[in-house]
Amino acid sequence: xxxxxxxxxxxxxxxxxxxxxxxxxxxxxxxxxxxxxxxxxxxxxxxxxxxxxxxxxxxxxxxxxxxxxxxxxxxxxxxxxxxxxxxxxxxxxxxxxxxxxxxxxxxxxxxxxxxxxxxxxxxxxxxxxxxxxxxxxxxxxxxxxxxxxxxxxxxxxxxxxxxxxxxxxxxxxxxxxxxxxxxxxxxxxxxxxxxxxxxxxxxxxxxxxxxxxxxxxxxxxxxxxxxxxxxxxxxxxxxxxxxxxxxxxxxxxxxxxxxxxxxxxxxxxxxxxxxxxxxxxxxxxxxxxxxxxxxxxxxxxxxxxxxxxxxxxxxxxxxxxxxxxxxxxxxxxxxxxxxxxxxxxxxxxxxxxxxxxxxxxxxxxxxxxxxxxxxxxxxxxxxxxxxxxxxxxxxxxxxxxxxxxxxxxxxxxxxxxx
Length: 418
Prior knowledge:
Layout: H1 2-18, E1 20-22, H2 24-34, H3 40-56, E2 62-71, E3 93-106, H4 110-134, H5 136-176, H6 182-217, E4 225-227, H7 243-264, E5 269-280, E6 291-301, H8 309-375, H9 381-416
Parallel strand pairs: 1-4
Antiparallel strand pairs: 2-3, 3-5, 5-6
Helix pairs in contact: 2-5, 3-4, 4-7, 5-6, 5-9, 7-8, 8-9
């Protein structure tokens, strides 16, 4: 016996450590970290950096190599003969190869404006990922509290089983000595089997909910996992902090930045250019031989009239901003309705819990009297089982209402963006 006790004490810490305790906030954090969608934040950052790098390359010189060989049906000829001149008309077959360089000197800050727009787009896209991940909270809540409910029901059924076992031992002793009819013992055994069946069903349902939760948080959860009952405090006076609101703000900022890009697109563009080449003829069209040549200069491009294109583009952006504003208003309206519904649920379950304690207190007194009557042979096992079931149904109702209240509070926090 001492050896067995020593073994149990030795393995006790290992058994305790094998129990995995998980909180609701840890589930949220695991989903944010491990859900496949979360990887988009870094990918979007990388994509934007590449796009900005492409824009910055517009500031570098542009080099082009060009070559051509042509044959033309006619060439320039003098209509008269110049005395003492040996000028020959150009050849009909001509050849040219050039290296052209163009360097942007000024473009009105168009590259900087587009870089700013890319940064604004990135912020909005990353916030959209945050919004999409935030929707997981409601699904986590549903599965988390389902597991909690099964945990609590399992505890209550095990407690009920203990009471039933105690009554069964007493009744079995009475049957042995002929003081109690065998039917009473059989009724208690049937109820015991029914409890075992309920425990088995709860275990399967719990495993199913744990599996769903594990898929959301990307964590292996099994029968050794215990979910902690959260203590949730709500502040109705707190303003909404939903990530969608920040998304709407960033979308408006992105659209406003796009107007700046539209304005910059019509600014004058100044470029420096250089050309070096080799061909026949060269720049001197009257010399029918292969020559090398070069040219340098400046080029200005300015679209001074675009037929109202810029104005219409800005008008389209303003309409898009109005669309975002209406989406924001619609979201706030729906969010307020959800808040009212959640507040109503919180009040409802809180009121029900006030009665639950009173009901359980009365049921415990009835069961106490019924237990004494059963022990004295004044009632049958069937009557005892009825009162036992009544008590534990009341306790299960209380646990259900407690968890429904906690779920309503958790959902309220999600709705408010807490």
